[in-house]
C-alpha cells in the first residue's frame, strides 16, 4: 500500500528559505487560491478564507485576479513576453516611462527600469556617484542616510540601511561606511489632516542634521531617505518639515536628494507620492512594489534632466543593465495598473480612483483599529493613508498572533513590536471592519488586554 502524498507544507520545510527566516522555519500556510482581497489558505487544520491585510507586502493594491490586469498580461503574452532591452525598445516600456514622468513630482524626466526595488536603489546610488564624478567631485563617495531606514537587501542598498537596528549588521565589514543622521522626531497626521510633532525635538534634530551634513559634505554624494514613512524600520512616521530640511541641506551642500518611494509611492500614504506631503522635489526617485499592482517584479528609478545631463556631458553611460530590464510583460501590466489608479485622468485630482480609495481606507482603518487603544498591551495606534499600525509595548509573538488572526479571517505578518496592515485599495468598509476586529481580538488574545 502506497504512502499518502506529503503535504505542500511538509515538502516546503527544509527545502525553501523564506524571507528573514531560518531554513527550518518553513511556512505556516499554503495558498490555494486568491481573488479580490481574499486568500484561501490551507494547513493541517483545513482551509481558511482570509482578508489579505498585507497586500502581499504592499504591492497588490488592486487585489488578486483583477480582470483588467489579467487581460493586460494575457494580451502581452500573446504578443511577446520578453526581449532584451540592449539596443531594442518596445511600446510597453516607452508608454510606462511616459506615464511615470507625467505622474512624478517635480522635474523627473528620465527613467531607468529595474528588476526590483532594491536594484532601483542600487542604480540610484550608482547614478549619484557617477554624477559627482562627472562634475569633478570624485571624492564624494558616501551617502547621508537616516537611522531607521530600509532600502533593500542588496549590498549598496544594505549600506544605507540602519547599521545597528536594521537587518544587515552582519554584513557591515563588506560595505562602505555611510553617514547616518538620527531619525527625525515622530509625527502624526490627525483625522482633520493636520500634522503634529514636537517643535523642540524637531529643532534639535535639524541642528544636528545640519551640523553633521556640514562636517561630512566634502565626501558626500547625496542624501537618501524614505519620505515621511519608514517602513521596515518600524512603520515610523515623521513630519514633512524634516523632509524639507533634508532638501535644504542637499541644496546647501550640492548633494543629490534620493527619495525611496518603493513602499510609499502610488498613493499609499494619502498623497500620490509621499514626497508631496512636504512639497519637495527630489533629484532621484525610486518606485516599485505597487507599480505592477503586485503581478510581477518591476521597479524604476527616475531622475532630473540636470542629473542625467551631467553624465551625458561627460560621455558616461549609466553602468547598470539587468537581463530583464524593461520586461514587456511587467511593463504592460504596470501600464494597466497605473491606468486603474488614475482612471485615465489627472492622478492628483480629488476624484482620481486611488485618492478616493485611499481616503476610504484611512477613515475605515481609523475606525476599525480604534478599539485596540483600550488594550493594556498597546502602546499606540496610528494611521496614515492606507497604512494602519497597532504598536505594542512588547515584541510581538509573530507566529501566535498570525495564527490567531487567521482564525478570525485576516492575514497579517507582524514584526518587531508592530501589528500593521496595508490592505488592497479595493478593500470595502466591511472588509476593513473584519480586518480590524480580527487584529484587535488577536492582539488581546495573544498579548493580553
Write the layout of secondary structure elements.
Elements: H1 8-12, E1 30-35, E2 38-43, E3 46-52, H2 55-58, H3 67-77, H4 91-103, E4 108-114, H5 117-134, E5 142-146, H6 155-159, E6 179-181, E7 187-189, E8 195-197, H7 199-216, E9 220-225, E10 229-230, E11 236-237, H8 240-252, E12 256-260, E13 284-287, E14 299-304, H9 305-313, H10 328-342, H11 353-369, E15 378-384, E16 387-392, H12 398-407, E17 410-411, E18 418-421, H13 429-447
Parallel strand pairs: 3-17, 5-6, 5-9, 9-12, 12-13
Antiparallel strand pairs: 1-2, 2-3, 4-14, 7-8, 10-11, 13-14, 15-16, 16-18
Helix pairs in contact: 3-10, 4-10, 5-9, 7-8, 11-13, 12-13
Poorly predicted regions: none
| Number of strand segments | 18
**Class by helix and strand content?**
alpha/beta
Rg computed from alpha carbons, rounded to a whole number of angstroms: 22 Å
Query: What is the arithmetic mean of pLDDT?
Result: 94
| Beta content | 15-25%
Number of helices: 13
Molecular shape:
globular
Sheet with the most strands: spatial strand order: 4-14-13-12-9-5-6
Distance between the termini: 51 Å
Family: Belongs to the class-III pyridoxal-phosphate-dependent aminotransferase family. BioA subfamily.
Catalytic activity: (8S)-8-amino-7-oxononanoate + S-adenosyl-L-methionine = S-adenosyl-4-methylsulfanyl-2-oxobutanoate + (7R,8S)-7,8-diammoniononanoate
Organism: Paeniglutamicibacter terrestris
Function: Catalyzes the transfer of the alpha-amino group from S-adenosyl-L-methionine (SAM) to 7-keto-8-aminopelargonic acid (KAPA) to form 7,8-diaminopelargonic acid (DAPA). It is the only aminotransferase known to utilize SAM as an amino donor.
Amino acid at each position: 500500500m502506497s504512502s499518502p502524498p506529503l503535504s505542500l507544507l511538509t515538502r516546503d520545510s527544509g527545502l525553501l528559505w523564506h524571507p528573514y527566516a531560518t531554513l527550518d522555519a518553513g511556512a505556516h500556510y499554503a495558498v490555494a487560491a486568491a481573488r479580490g482581497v481574499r486568500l484561501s489558505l490551507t494547513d493541517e487544520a483545513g482551509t481558511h478564507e482570509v482578508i489579505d491585510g498585507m497586500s502581499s507586502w504592499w504591492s497588490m493594491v488592486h487585489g488578486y485576479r483583477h480582470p483588467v490586469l489579467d487581460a493586460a498580461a494575457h494580451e502581452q503574452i500573446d504578443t511577446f513576453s520578453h526581449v532584451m532591452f540592449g539596443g531594442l525598445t518596445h511600446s510597453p516600456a516607452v508608454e510606462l516611462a511616459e506615464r511615470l514622468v507625467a505622474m512624478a513630482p517635480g522635474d523627473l524626466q528620465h527613467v531607468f527600469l529595474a528588476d526590483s526595488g532594491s536594484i532601483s536603489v542600487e542604480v540610484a546610488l550608482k547614478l549619484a556617484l557617477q554624477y559627482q564624478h562627472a562634475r569633478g567631485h570624485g571624492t564624494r563617495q558616501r551617502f547621508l542616510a537616516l537611522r531607521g531606514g530600509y532600502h533593500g537587501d542588496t549590498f549598496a542598498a544594505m549600506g544605507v540601511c540602519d547599521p545597528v537596528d536594521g537587518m544587515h549588521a552582519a554584513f557591515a565589514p563588506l560595505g562602505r561606511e555611510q553617514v547616518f543622521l538620527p531619525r527625525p522626531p515622530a509625527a502624526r497626521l490627525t483625522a482633520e489632516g493636520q500634522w503634529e510633532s514636537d517643535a523642540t525635538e524637531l529643532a534639535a534634530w535639524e541642528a544636528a542634521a545640519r551640523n553633521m551634513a556640514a562636517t561630512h559634505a566634502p565626501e558626500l554624494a547625496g542624501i537618501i531617505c524614505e519620505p515621511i514613512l519608514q517602513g521596515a524600520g518600524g512603520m515610523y512616521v515623521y513630519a514633512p518639515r524634516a523632509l524639507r530640511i533634508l532638501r535644504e541641506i542637499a541644496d546647501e551642500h550640492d548633494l543629490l536628494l534620493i527619495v525611496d518611494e518603493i513602499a510609499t509611492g502610488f498613493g499609499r500614504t494619502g498623497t500620490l507620492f509621499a514626497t508631496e506631503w512636504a512639497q519637495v522635489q527630489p533629484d532621484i526617485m525610486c518606485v516599485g512594489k505597487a507599480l505592477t499592482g503586485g503581478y510581477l517584479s518591476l521597479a524604476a528609478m527616475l531622475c532630473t534632466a540636470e542629473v542625467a545631463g551631467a553624465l551625458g556631458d561627460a560621455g558616461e553611460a549609466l553602468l547598470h543593465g539587468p537581463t530583464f530590464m524593461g520586461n514587456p510583460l511587467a511593463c504592460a501590466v504596470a501600464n494597466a495598473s497605473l491606468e486603474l489608479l488614475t482612471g485615465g485622468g489627472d492622478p492628483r485630482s480629488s476624484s482620481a480612483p486611488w485618492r478616493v480609495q485611499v481616503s476610504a481606507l484611512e477613515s475605515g482603518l481609523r475606525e476599525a483599529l480604534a478599539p485596540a487603544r483600550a488594550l493594556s498591551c498597546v502602546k499606540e495606534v496610528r494611521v496614515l493613508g492606507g497604512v494602519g499600525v497597532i504598536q505594542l509595548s512588547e515584541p510581538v509573538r509573530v507566529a501566535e498572533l498570525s495564527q490567531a488572526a487567521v482564525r478570525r479571517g485576516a492575514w497579517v505578518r507582524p514584526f518587531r513590536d508592530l501589528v500593521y496592515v496595508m490592505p488592497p485599495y479595493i478593500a470595502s468598509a466591511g472588509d476593513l471592519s473584519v480586518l480590524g476586529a480580527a487584529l484587535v481580538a488577536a492582539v488581546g488574545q495573544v498579548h493580553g488586554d
